[in-house]
Amino acid sequence: MNDSADRRVRVQDDAGTEAFGAQLETWRLRMENALAARLPQPSRVPARLHEAMRYSVLGGGKRIRPALLFATARAVGLSEDQVEAAACAIELVHVYSLVHDDLPAMDNDDLRRGRPTCHKAYDEATALLVGDALQPLAFQLLASDPALPASPVIRLRLIDMLAQAIGTFGMAGGQAIDLAVQGTRLDIGQVEDMHARKTGAVISASVLMAAECAPPLETNLYSALTRFATAVGLAFQIQDDLLDVTGDVSTLGKATGADSERAKPTHPAIIGITASQQRVRLLHSQAINALAPFGDRADSLRSLAHWLLSRQY
Predict the structure, then answer these.
(1) Each residue's pLDDT tens digit in the chain (313 positions)?
(2) In terms of DSSP H, where are the helices of 196-272?
(3) 3-state class (DSSP) for residue 112
(4) Does domain 16-310 have CATH number 1.10.600.10?
(5) What distance in Å separates the CA atoms of residue 33 and residue 66, rounded to the nearest whole number?
(6) b/e per residue, 145-159, with b = 16+ CB within 10 A?
(7) pTM beyond cutoff 0.70
């Protein structure tokens, strides 16, 4: 591809990414309503805990994981209604992880989504209980929400997929590794393994749980979604690490420079900013190429990948 053709492709991608922002906002607003309807009301006992749960979940956020689930649903021929409860479950476990990560025993953060973290707005004990309550609520939705497929086999599969994504071989295990290796030097393979657990597992679940709600896919299509999710999950974390170095707190809604202060092994720390940006571009290409078997049906996933990996917040 010559330079002029390459520039045209970039302009088209940028235009498509900008237009996709409207779709993301529609999905975000949908999720605010869906989550608000499924969270317990603060008028019910224990009122303070319910209030803190709603503070944490409804306090903003891009709703990236639900967007991945909705975009995948489109690719496999489902509507948002058919997967909304699964999107809520994914977001509830994501928020629970943020509430716990922000605690003094973990990352000790004061700011999340542009306002005080849960333990700062309430207290540490309440923040612990918020996480403890959000996780079972997520599994309750997968078990009993009437809009999800009625098949007990599919329900159990969704529960199993989410449990694996957030357990010791997924998010919790990745966080444990992250805490254990601060101040040590890892090679890039070890860092990517950590990120595949801490961030990538839940992102993969966001994609594959949508596929699980559809009629059985051909093996090549399921494998394509798996490759896409793996590449996007890792690239998303590298982009996050880059933003911690190059981003602005007023845009990000959280403190920057935290990774460096804690001596965390990240891509920018190990291979530098330029090489990290190149790694994001390579993973982006891998993700887009993986979707080829879906044709136009995966356009929402392609647009979402463009948006995720070019974002500045």
Answers:
(1) 444 434 434 444 555 556 788 999 999 999 999 999 999 999 999 999 999 999 999 988 899 999 999 999 999 999 999 999 999 999 999 999 999 999 999 989 999 988 999 999 999 999 999 999 999 999 999 999 999 999 999 999 999 999 999 999 999 999 999 888 888 888 889 999 999 999 999 999 999 999 999 999 999 999 999 999 999 999 999 998 999 887 565 554 545 556 556 667 888 989 999 999 999 999 999 999 999 999 999 999 999 999 988 876 6
(2) 201-213, 219-246, 249-252, 258-261, 267-271
(3) strand
(4) yes
(5) 13
(6) eeebbeeeebbebbb
(7) yes
| CB atoms inside a 10 Å sphere around CB 108 | 13
Cis omega before residue 265 (within 30°)? no
| Amino acid letter, residue 75 | A
Q: Count the helix, strand and coil residues of the chain and give each as a percent rounded to the nearest 5.
A: 75, 0, 25
39-50: b or e for each residue (b if 16 or more CB lie within 10 Å)?
A: bbebeeeeeebb
Q: Rounded to an integer, what distance in angstroms lies between the CA atom of residue 59 and that of residue 39?
A: 13
User: 């979402």: which residue's tokens?
Assistant: 304
Cα dihedral 27, 32, 34, 40 in deg (nearest 10):
160
Burial (Cβ within 10 Å: 0-12, 13-18, ≥19) of residue 61: buried
Residue 272, token pair as written in the block: 């530098």
Tokens of 214: 């559809």
Residue with tokens 């071989």: 169
**Domain spans in the chain, listed from the N-terminal domain onward:** 16-310
